[in-house]
Amino acid sequence: MDKINIIYISIEGNTRNFVKNLSSYAEAEHAKDDTNPVINAKEVSEQTDFSNEEENFFAFVPTYLDGGNGIDNGVKELMTNVLGEYIDYNNNARKCIGVIGSGNRNFNEQYCLTARRYAKKFHCDLVADFELRGTSRDVTRVYSALIEESKKH
């Protein structure tokens, strides 16, 4: 495995920052041992033209809710819908091999709710999570989790 593909959406920059740090970490690990994969990341936004994904990828999604608590009175997703639509496009969902979620632990059961919903909808695992912009420990942990999950596919 020479690379790990990531498709993500970032609303306030937290996920973008995490993916940037993850990519830098992967580059450093690859420089130490070229069998360590690099990160190939693509950000999806409202301006993104949908395309067919040809290779397996992981989806990184934060949770933003606007109404409902996601548990007993429904949920109204906010701002991240375009990523779900992108994964739903043609056969892209077949290439989604895992979801990584982010959020704010202050929201209890809503923490990473969107990621959990994506994993269920697209029939893949919730591979890892991190809070807000994540920490360096989160970067190392998520990178390892991506490698392990990639080996299964």
Automatic annotation (TrEMBL):
<protein>
    <submittedName>
        <fullName>NrdI family protein</fullName>
    </submittedName>
</protein>
<feature type="domain" description="Flavodoxin-like">
    <location>
        <begin position="4"/>
        <end position="153"/>
    </location>
</feature>
<dbReference type="InterPro" id="IPR008254">
    <property type="entry name" value="Flavodoxin/NO_synth"/>
</dbReference>
<dbReference type="InterPro" id="IPR004465">
    <property type="entry name" value="RNR_NrdI"/>
</dbReference>
<dbReference type="Pfam" id="PF07972">
    <property type="entry name" value="Flavodoxin_NdrI"/>
</dbReference>
<dbReference type="GO" id="GO:0016651">
    <property type="term" value="F:oxidoreductase activity, acting on NAD(P)H"/>
</dbReference>
<dbReference type="GO" id="GO:0010181">
    <property type="term" value="F:FMN binding"/>
</dbReference>
<dbReference type="InterPro" id="IPR029039">
    <property type="entry name" value="Flavoprotein-like_sf"/>
</dbReference>
